[in-house]
Design a protein that fits this description.
Layout (H helix, E strand, L loop, with lengths): L21 H10 L27 H9 L2 E9 L3 H4 L11 H10 L11 E7 L20 E2 L2 H7 L4 E2 L6 H7 L3 E3 L2 H9 L6 E4 L8 H7 L20 H12 L6 E6 L2 H7 L3 H25 L25 H6 L3
Parallel strand pairs: 1-2, 1-7, 2-6, 5-6
Antiparallel strand pairs: 3-4
Helix pairs in contact: 7-9, 9-11, 10-11
Length: 331
């Protein structure tokens, strides 16, 4: 990303704070409107429900409605997390994972070309898709939603339901999404020319960071996962980006794709420099995948942004050898 031809600077703040969190930080890019911390795709209101706020149309929704484009969400975080959520979910509570993930499917394709248009959903967060009572499930009534009939009609969306026992993965499959559970399956399913829609949830919550995927990325199992979740064969971010591009490119009307290196932020919160740096490298590899696609296919705009900084991370240093001496060192 250091080789991009154009650079810009932006100061991010939310409606109610000088320091934004990821929800308004991302949704400002995808809607052009500021929102409150903890909210995405909505304006604040004075009701108790987190899902009945006045809405702002997302870039992906506009592209889907007006031009027939599809939307891809790729992240190393839980797919209900703030940044991926601010591509398609409309809520006043970024933590309402059951309702957010239900929205991904329930508002996928609506009448008159409306809807979020999601065709690819890759990342972590399998816990929100497993029926309540299944080991590892996080679905519950407290994070779900159901709109009253009048609000649903006004917004032009389904009412939703308080249904923590819903098998959301089964519903995605029934709507034509091919499911990948491992890195190996991802490559196989994405390369199948008949795959038009793809979902892959490779961890119960956030995916392993790059440092740990490289150290133990093809282990046959994991003590943290249950019998109903995949082994620790988690793809790297650039592998997910390439798979998403392969599937999305089958829609000849085009696409809008988010690729998030989520744990640069998360490891900075933890002051874990090694893992933050490795995740930055993993993200840069994903940027390479997108640039290669754009250079090969044309008519593609690649934008790299951050929604906020955290922990005051900085890297400084100086060489004590000449450039020639450094180049002579082993790789």
């Amino acid at each position: 990303m250091d080789d991009f031809p154009v650079y810009g600077m932006v100061m991010t703040s939310s409606l109610n704070a000088l320091v934004t969190d990821s929800s308004p930080g991302m949704s400002c890019y995808t809607t052009g409107s500021k929102s409150m911390n903890g909210q995405e795709g909505v304006y604040p209101d004075n009701t108790a429900s987190a899902f009945d706020n006045p809405r702002v149309e997302y870039l992906g929704e506009i592209a889907h409605r007006r031009f027939g484009k599809v939307v891809g969400i790729v992240t190393t975080a839980d797919v209900e997390d703030a940044t991926p959520g601010a591509m398609a979910a409309h809520t006043g509570n970024r933590g309402a994972g059951t309702g957010i993930c239900d929205q991904y499917l329930d508002e996928n394709d609506l009448v008159n070309g409306r809807g979020n248009g999601i065709a690819v959903l890759l990342g972590g967060g399998r816990r929100w898709f497993l029926p309540a009572g299944t080991p590892g499930s996080a679905r519950d009534a407290a994070t779900d939603y159901q709109l009253d009939a009048g609000t649903a009609t006004e917004l032009g969306v389904p009412s939703g339901a308080i249904d923590p026992a819903r098998d959301l993965l089964a519903d995605f499959r029934a709507r034509g999404f091919g499911e990948a559970r491992t890195a190996a399956e991802l490559d196989t399913i994405a390369s199948n020319p008949t795959t038009q829609k793809l979902i892959g949830l490779f961890s119960l919550a956030n995916m392993n960071v790059a440092f740990d995927k490289i150290a133990d990325r093809r282990a046959p199992g994991s003590s943290e996962l249950t019998a109903d979740t995949p082994a620790r064969d988690q793809p790297m971010l650039d592998e997910m980006a390439r798979a998403a591009l392969t599937v999305l490119d089958r829609n000849r009307k085009g696409f809008v794709l988010l690729v998030e290196g989520a744990s640069i932020d998360k490891q900075s919160h933890l002051m874990d420099a090694d893992r933050a740096i490795w995740d930055t490298i993993e993200f840069d590899n994903a940027v390479r995948a997108c640039r290669e696609f754009a250079e090969r296919e044309g008519n593609t705009l690649v934008i790299v942004v951050s929604d906020h900084e955290c922990s005051g991370f900085s890297v400084i240093g100086a060489l004590k050898r000449t450039t020639a001496q450094m180049r002579a060192l082993p790789s």
